[in-house]
Structures are given as C-alpha cells and as structure tokens.
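yo

u said u wanted the structure for the complex thing, so here. seqs first:
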Amino acid sequence: MIRVQREDFDAGAELNGFCAANGKVGGVACFVGLVRDYVGHDPTAGETVRAMTLEHYPGMTERQLAAIEAEARGRWPLEDCLIIHRHGRLEPGDRIVLVLTASAHREAAFQACQFLIDWLKTKAPFWKLEETSDGGQWVEARSSDDELAARWAKDGNR
Amino acid sequence: MKLLYFAWLRSKVGMGEETVAPPAEVRDVSSLIAWLKERGPGHAAAFADLSVVRVAVNQDYAGLDHPVRAGDEVAFFPPVTGG
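structre next:
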C-alpha cells in the first residue's frame, strides 16, 4: 500500500496494526527516514539545517511508488508492504518516510525493506529544499544512492 | 501539450506548468527541449546542462529520444532526492 501525505505518521501504530490479522506473517521489517539537522555528510563541518521542504510530482509519485512496490512483491514472498512518504515543510527530527514489509521469514522482509528504500530514493519524484541561514538550497542527488539502488539491479535477490 | 517543471527547473523557468503547442517538427523530447530553449532566457538556463535534467512523459521516465505528441504531459526535473 502507498500513502503520500503532508501529515505525520505514527510509526509505532502503523507497525502494530501491520498484518495484525495475518497468521502467515513471521516477521516485519521497518525503516523510518528522518530529517537531519546538518547539510552534507559531516555533522561537524556541515551547516545547520533549519527545515526542509519536500516537493513532489502528484500522480507520478504514486505511480512510481506503486511500481516499486510491485517490483518488491515480484522479487520476495511478501505478505504485505506499506510505504508512507511525506511532503511539505519538515523540521529536523521529523519523520519523512516509513517502509514496512511483512513476510513469513525475516530474510525476505529485511531485503525487501532495504530494496524499497534504495529504489525509492532514486526513482520516486521527490526533491528536497534545505533551509539554512543562507536561504534555501536544493539538495543534489548523490551518486552513492545510485550505487545502492544499482546493486539490486545487478544481483536480483542478492 | 502540458509541460511541468519541478524544483530548481521551476525556479529557472519561472513557472510550474505551461501549455504549449509546438510546431510539427517537434517529435521527441530532444527536439522539444531545443524548441523550449528558444522561448526565453529562463528556459535556456533551465536546459543549459541536460546531464542534471530528468524527463517524464505521461508520468513515466523517458529518454531524450522518447516521442512526444499533442496531449502528452511532459515533466522536467532534477535527479530525485526523496527518502
């Protein structure tokens, strides 16, 4: 299931409700992405981020996320799958994204969860505008994210 | 044809969307971009470096050789940074 929303989500409540009535589920993997409070990769050198605005492409976002979910379901025996991605203005510590995967066994749940966030980061049409004391700056895509996504294309199920 | 611009492309072009009727020789993404660059300095700046521009035609990623026709929704944006 895909949800693209401005509102916050309750990761604990989502996790508790996920597959609650499905006796075939033996494990649930969870990833929560948060807004960091610094620019770049080095927390000591980077400038402080006051807030971040996530822009997206309504329609294409849902379409791409659904395609990514379908790809995961084709690769792993998932009982269920949930992606929640927020947009709008967020502050450091705020939740951005939730990925939940449920399967009979942990390996499929862990791998599918990692696959989903890796692919989402390079395929779902979202863009981050960071607010610092200098004003606003669009975050540039990272080649390391492309490499993390590409490993799934090369290896399939790893 | 409906065109959409996101993130810094929107800032450079100066608008989030526009409806255009390109001439018949505009048949693919590449020729559409070449035509758009002539529309003004904002468009020219947005498309100055195509290595940082991604394209979607009707909400699917598309290459420069992807055909475009009247009624299509064509979006231009930088590499994505969600998650």
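Helices of chain A lie at 11-17, 60-75, 106-123, 143-155. The radius of gyration of chain A is 16 Å.
cya
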